Amino acid sequence: MRRPSQRDIAQRAGVSQTAVSLVLNGKTDSISTTTQERIRRAMTELSYVPDPAARSLRGGRNDLIGVHTYEPVFPVGPDDYFHDFLVGIEQRAVELARDLVLFASTQRPDGRRSIYGGGTNRLRLADGTVVFGLERDDDELRRLTAERYPFVVLGRRDSLPEVASVGVDYAPAVTASLTRLVEAGHRRIGYLRGRQDQTPQRDRRDAARTAETGLGITLAWYEREDTTAETGPRYWVAEGLTAVVVEATEDAPYVERLAREAGVQIPTDLSAVCLDAVPAASEAAHWSQLSIPKRAVGARALTVLTEILDGRLPADHRELHPCDDGISPATVAAPRTA
Questions:
Q1: Quick one: 76 and 178 in the same domain?
Q2: Structural domain count, the chain
Q3: Strand-pair partners of 243
Q4: If you count Cβ atoms within 10 Å of the first and of the last residue's Cβ in the chain, which end, N or C, has fewer?
């Protein structure tokens, strides 16, 4: 089947090819809103997808880099988990003299975000895009790949080996955290799993299981949804646990509150480590925690994208960056029974 052309769009919308080209390249100052809507509607009806390679050959690079998030809102607040990633992206864009486009119009009425919410690839306005978010849509990312649209995902995604990604290697830091607890005298340690079950969470769990064997310790595994005032810190201490590692940053303040309400003192009664970075405004900000190079990873994601655009890296390039060495001793103490 012949792929639809800009001429087909022009005929369907009743406009000139020049108008179609201007809309496709984001140069809409001279195009009325009504005409733009007709052109985009025609693109949707014809299932038109622009060819990035052909656009580049025509000199269509505009040095615009897109940023798309699957989160409900862009991480502009300093305590948002993805904020420092975005800061790193912005800093690197300044160094490379690239402009950033935040794709805010991809939000659906239900609050979720979709690259193809209007039927066409909204990201085409940029030369390439950095994509992030916990609830990523793998089908959309596969479609982007099939269209040969250049993009890089923040975070490793085992289900998408064909997709370029820049992520964090959590395994060494998890091992180091458990080693620190063992060196402090702990042998019975709890592991509180979070609600997410993506590659980063599985990486942490796999590393913990490996460390459990190597360090000769016993891990007691718990689920966040099953953890209450009755089954949380008070119960853990009664069961003989002397330390807990919390997988998800959002669960650390929850455990902190449960412990305080139960009269369990951290770290006197129960040492605690978060296997993530905890926001400064969190009740658990003082916890021992991982130091994740978010800004460096964000900056590197943008660098990788530009190198893909320039043909210096393949479209499926993947790399991981380790967390900074060590955790703070803030909430790690020797167990009372040691």
A1: no
A2: 3
A3: 189, 271
A4: N
